[in-house]
UniProtKB/TrEMBL annotation:
The lineage of its organism: Bacteria, Bacillati, Actinomycetota, Actinomycetes, Kitasatosporales. Residues 1-22 are annotated as: Disordered. It comes from Streptomyces heliomycini. It comes from the Bacteria. This is HU family DNA-binding protein.
Length: 85
């Protein structure tokens, strides 16, 4: 799934919940969070400051020995294993 597909899926999921989000706005938010070639995103900036970024039950991003790491949250792990309620 590339950025455009991720944005489209996010727009569709938001619409299912009654929210109207434009594709362009979703793509700009993805860029702001994760960054681009020309601009670091807020997650990368926080990691550079050695902060942990918690994305709800999805998981957390943190630094480990100078490298970025991701630890999936319980809900994501359960969903992937098919054990989520």
């Amino acid at each position: 799934m590339d950025k455009s597909q991720l944005a489209r899926a996010g727009v569709d999921k938001a619409a299912q919940r009654g929210h109207d989000i434009r594709q362009e706005d979703a793509e700009q938010l993805i860029d702001a969070l994760f960054g681009t070639v020309d601009m670091a995103g807020v997650i990368a900036e926080a990691l550079k400051r050695e902060e942990t970024v918690v994305a709800g039950s999805f998981g957390r991003f943190h630094t480990d020995g100078g490298s970025a790491s991701f630890q999936p949250g319980k809900a994501l792990t359960e969903y992937l294993h098919g054990t989520a309620p």
